[in-house]
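Recap slide: MRH domain-containing protein, sequence and predicted structure.
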Amino acid sequence: LGEDGEGGHMDDDAYPYEDHEDELDDEDYHHHGDDDMAEPPLPEPPSAAEHAALEARLQAAQDKLEALQAEALNIQRYHLGAANYDFGPNNVFLALAGRCIKDQGKRWIYEACFFDKAVQSEPHAPKNRVSLGNWHGFNSDYTQAYFTDGDPCPGDLPRRSLTVNLVCDDKEHMHGGEEPSTCIYRTNLSTPIACKEADLIKAEQELQQLERHEAEIRSQIAAAEAAR
């Protein structure tokens, strides 16, 4: 009501904020609407270090998978089918089953995977391999292991083969790889597994002899010091 008590026209300026609030609401609506419609930013490509780390993780996973597959094959081949293999007296050579041992020479690498296969490669190109044969077995006294029927040899020569001489030693290492005649290869595996009872008795006797010799030297030194 106006001052005269009659109904009057309400001035728009009496509520100056109403239209502005509407304008703000419209602007705010459109502003947020634009944000909602905007496409998310693309992820940045991995750095060289991150890429290398991913490749390393992938390679590690592949290596682990291959190791598990090889282990499964070994279980099937050696343990479930052990009756088909000669592991020596008391199965002593079962410890070599599924293992690949290398003779790392300067010119050639000889690798013997017992009860499986043998290969030859070059240090600077390890993936370029030549087959030296598949597992053939031991000799009668288990001092040699044979791999036969490897890759063809030039001419009419027999296919490549490898003989591994088994030597009693307190540490395991493969050494002395050579090709004494064309496509006929030979190397030596020193290992405690190759030690027989006679070897152990001999080693014990040698140890006792060394201990006696050491005791004699100590006695002589003590006598010389006492005579001063």
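The two ends are 138 Å apart (CA to CA).
The first helix runs from residue 18 to 37.
(End of recap.)
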